Amino acid sequence: MAFPISLDDIKAASRTIEGAVERTPTRPSRTLSEIAGCEIWLKFENLQFTASFKDRGAFNKLSSLTAEERSRGVIAMSAGNHAQGVAYHAGRLGIPATIVMPRNTPFSKVKHTKGFGARVELAGGNLSEASYRAREIAAAENLVFVHPYDDPKIIAGQATVAVEMLFDTPHLDAIVVPIGGGGLISGIAIAAKALKPEIDIYGVQTRVYPSMYNAVKHASLPCVGQTMAEGIAVKDPGVLTTPVVRALVKDILLVGETDIEHSIASLLEIEKTLVEGAAAAVYAAVIANREIFKGRKVGLVLSGGNVDMRLLSNVILRELSREGRILSLVIEIVDRPGVLAQIATLVGEGGGNILEVAHNRMATDTSAKLADLGMTVETRDAEHAADIKQRLEAAGFRLKK
């Protein structure tokens, strides 16, 4: 089949972006490899200036515009990363930029996009609705529409990720890539298969937005819901990208929200690198499908690192709770002096660190002489948490939670 770009287009894109876009490293992870049962290599696209691979396609596309097109200005719709890439490079090239973003876009991405000098409008509840508004503005103001994935120049720019990966790590057996509209994975697939035909390309989507999965597998799973991976929460996969994915991608794997949260926390704690939900999805997919990747050399594209800090803090606390490192207790106590001190002593002697305490004397299902003591305790792990609970129960306290 005829693809929207060729290897020559990708090589030309590599020359265009050289010096303007970071050539990010591809590095092995011994610890993640041991956990996953395969040899993990990480491509750190979260180290781009705007913290996303979108810098590549944005610069390649904007560089191709004529002087007349540049003077008119550009417009894009995006949940954040494409917005920042277009805004940043448009500013560098002296091109006026307008960005339409869904209303639920994380504040950090809106702030950074405005910070690069773009005019930002929030419209619609998802990318499809934002796209409709962006095209309205483009028509009314005669702006050049810069599509986030359905554009040959964008796809060629994103494809340079694979060129760098295979230059640095030519021994890879597979590359795992997050999928939204398909611009990144279609570019990577065309480049990687041209350079190394035997390599396998795997795509990853969330279970709540399996749009490309539906298109390729002729499925009809619903595309709706809240996700940590808003960067790949796309209802309409690309017209140009879908045939490429169908032809060159080995399989599309689906991951859940808990898997993504665990992956974010693991990459932060083990690799000391911050990734957003879309990027974390690739490691989550490997962990959830160990049998596919066992013993293989696997490259993971960490596509971006733009995370709302408040949301990140929630993810970290939730993960600590799942691991038993944050223990939430509700203890039934006799409401009299000294009881709290007794409980605090038991927890302290057990090596726990009390983070928060709250009394509830309004529980109507118990005696008025009783109260519920809510307590949050920091522990080493699940085993340590169980030991602290056992100490409290052995001292005669009833744990409700």
Would you mind describing this structure in some detail?
It is a single chain. The chain is of the alpha/beta class and 401 residues long. The chain has three domains: 7-53 and 152-318, Rossmann fold (3-Layer(aba) Sandwich), CATH 3.40.50.1100; 55-145, Rossmann fold (3-Layer(aba) Sandwich); 324-399, Alpha-Beta Plaits (2-Layer Sandwich), CATH 3.30.70. Helices cover 46% and strands 19% of the residues. The protein has helices spanning 7-17, 30-36, 54-63, 67-72, 81-93, 107-115, 127-141, 152-168, 183-195, 211-217, 241-248, 257-270, 277-288, 290-293, 309-322, 339-349, 382-394, and strands at residues 26-28, 39-44, 74-77, 97-101, 119-122, 144-145, 174-178, 200-206, 251-255, 297-302, 326-334, 353-360, 370-378, 398-399. α1 (7-17) crosses α8 and α9 crosses α11. The chain is elongated.
Task: List strands and helices in order, with pairings.
Blueprint: H1 7-17, E1 26-28, H2 30-36, E2 39-44, H3 54-63, H4 67-72, E3 74-77, H5 81-93, E4 97-101, H6 107-115, E5 119-122, H7 127-141, E6 144-145, H8 152-168, E7 174-178, H9 183-195, E8 200-206, H10 211-217, H11 241-248, E9 251-255, H12 257-270, H13 277-288, H14 290-293, E10 297-302, H15 309-322, E11 326-334, H16 339-349, E12 353-360, E13 370-378, H17 382-394, E14 398-399
Parallel strand pairs: 2-10, 3-4, 3-6, 4-5, 7-8, 7-10, 8-9
Antiparallel strand pairs: 1-2, 11-13, 11-14, 12-13
State the total count of DSSP E strands. Answer: 14
Radius of gyration from the alpha-carbon trace, in angstroms: 25 Å
The shape, in one word, is: elongated
Any idea how many domains? 3
Mean pLDDT: 93
Q: What percent strand?
A: 15-25%
CATH class of the largest domain: Alpha Beta
> Mind telling me which CATH architecture of the largest domain this is?
3-Layer(aba) Sandwich
* pLDDT < 50 stretches: none
